[in-house]
Every structure is written in C-alpha cells, then in structure tokens.
Design brief:
Largest sheet: 2 strands, antiparallel
Number of domains: 2
Bound molecules: heme C
CATH class of the largest domain: Mainly Alpha
Strand order of the largest sheet: 1-2
Number of strands: 4
Strand content: under 5%
CATH architecture of the largest domain: Orthogonal Bundle
Distance between the termini: 94 Å
Radius of gyration: 30 Å
CATH superfamily of the largest domain: Cytochrome c-like domain
Structural class: mainly alpha
Helix content: 40-55%
Number of helices: 9
C-alpha cells in the first residue's frame, strides 16, 4: 500500500508538472500529440485558400451538377433535364391502388402510346438492372449475386404467383415503392415513372419466360438484324 501512495504521488507530480498552465502565454511551441489533427487540410467557408487558382475557399458546384430536392428557381427541370418526381400523391399513379384495391394496367399519367412504349420498356430494363438485378437476377429468377452472399428468401419474379392475374401491377408497384419483409422500398431512390417502367419490364420478363419458341426466335432474329444494321 505504501508503494501505491508513492507511485500515486510521483504520477500526480509528473502530470501537474507536464500540464501547461492554462491561459498562460509561452514563447515555446506547444507540445502536439496529434499534429495531423491540429493542422488539417480543409476548406473554410468564406476564407481564402491557396490550393485553388482563384484563391477562394468557397467553391461553386461542379458544372452540370443536378442538385436533388433543391432548385433555387422553383423550376421542374434543371439544366434542361426534368427533375425526377418521387410521388406523395394519392391516386393510382402514386400508390398503385384504386379505392383500396390494387389494380392492373399502366396509369394514364405516363402517356404511353405505340411510339414510346419501347423506350419506356427500355427505361424499365435499365432501372431493373440497376436496382433489382443484384438480388432478383437479370432475368428476375431470384438468383442475383446477393443470394450467394447470404441474403435469404429472394423472390423468383418469374413464378406465376407474381404474374398479372395473381399479383396486380399496382401491388408490384407498391412493393417496389414500400418494400416487403426483408426487401427495402425504393420510393426515395427510384422516380415514380421509373418504378412503373420497372413494373412494365417485370411483366416483359415474365412474358419472355413463357413465350413460345417461334416468338422467341423471331424476336432474337430481329435483334440480330437490328444489330447488323
Ligand atoms: C437487397 C435485395 C433486393 C433488392 C435489391 C430487391 N429485392 Fe425484391 N425482394 C427481396 C427479398 C429478400 C424478397 C422477399 C421478401 C419477403 O417476403 O420477406 C423480395 C420480394 C420481392 C417481391 C415479392 C413480394 C411479395 O409480395 O412476396 C417483388 C415483387 C419484388 N421483390 C420486386 C423487386 C423489384 C422490382 C426490385 C427492384 C426495384 C427489387 N425487388 C429489389 C430482395 C430484394
């Protein structure tokens, strides 16, 4: 015990001796235990900075940056590119439901016609490949890469249980928007229109699974011919 008090006294004396007197001015450089934390390269708003050629610390956004959810002019487009609409409404277009029931069909707001339906499906393919394929697989069969790393129970979207008769378009839209069980929702990441495009593309994947041989061959040959042009 007596050694304890001795050690305690020595450590306390060292500690007090090494601790600079707070508030006192000293001509000596301070002892810096973590110099990289005292001296960091960082930008101070409203302060000059020699790193940049124009000597200003405050920077403008990089050219053509699309600020999400911030639009100073209140325009529905930025730099000529329409700002994505993420929903929040109450109709079929925003919820997939009519009077509390999920319905089938593409909402009129999308304005589909014979001319633009191919581009719409193509957009759906892009959005599906980006957002869904890692889990559900590029063909929708549920064998995406994440399954190999332990994500359990990923749905096989080509099954009849997810076909239009048993699983209306509106319900598919709702699952994409709000998620279900282990799957998260995409309403904050994927624009409203793109979510409907994904619904349309999932239908295309399901149809392609069931297409008769002749139809597949015809479509394949058309694709080859289009590529050859
Ligand atoms: C991170 C992996 C993951 C991603 C990405 C993902 N899903 Fe899922 N999805 C799941 C899992 C897991 C389930 C099974 C959920 C459950 O029943 O618990 C599921 C279920 C579903 C279902 C069936 C839901 C039901 O009613 O049983 C549909 C439809 C679906 N996903 C569509 C999509 C679409 C479309 C996308 C792209 C926008 C997508 N998923 C993205 C993992 C994912």
């Amino acid at each position: 015990m007596k050694y304890f008090f001795l050690a305690y006294a020595i450590i306390a004396a060292l500690f007090i001796g090494l601790m600079p007197t707070r508030g006192a001015k000293s001509p000596n450089a301070p002892i810096r235990l973590f110099p990289d934390m005292d001296e960091q390269d960082k930008l101070n708003a409203q302060k000059p900075d020699e790193f940049f050629a124009d000597g200003q610390g405050s920077r403008q956004p990089v050219a053509n940056t699309q600020p999400l959810g911030f639009n100073a002019e209140g325009l529905a487009e930025i730099g000529g590119i329409p700002e994505p609409e993420f929903g929040g409404g109450t109709g079929y277009y925003a919820t997939g439901g009519i009077d509390g029931y999920f319905a089938n069909g593409m909402p009129g707001e999308i304005g589909l016609d014979d001319e633009n339906v191919a581009a719409f499906l193509h957009r759906g393919q892009e959005a599906f490949d980006i957002n869904c394929a890692i889990c559900h697989g590029k063909s929708g069969d549920g064998l995406g890469i994440t399954g190999q790393f332990g994500v359990p129970g990923i749905a096989n979207l080509t099954q009849d249980t997810y076909g239009q008769a048993a699983y209306p378009d509106g319900r598919l839209f709702d699952v994409i928007s709000n998620g279900k069980g282990n799957m998260g929702g995409y309403k904050h990441n994927v624009a409203l229109r793109d979510r409907w495009a994904i619904v349309a593309y999932v239908r295309a994947l399901q149809t392609a699974r069931k297409a008769p041989y002749d139809a597949v061959k015809e479509a394949f040959d058309k694709g080859i011919a289009a590529q050859a042009q």
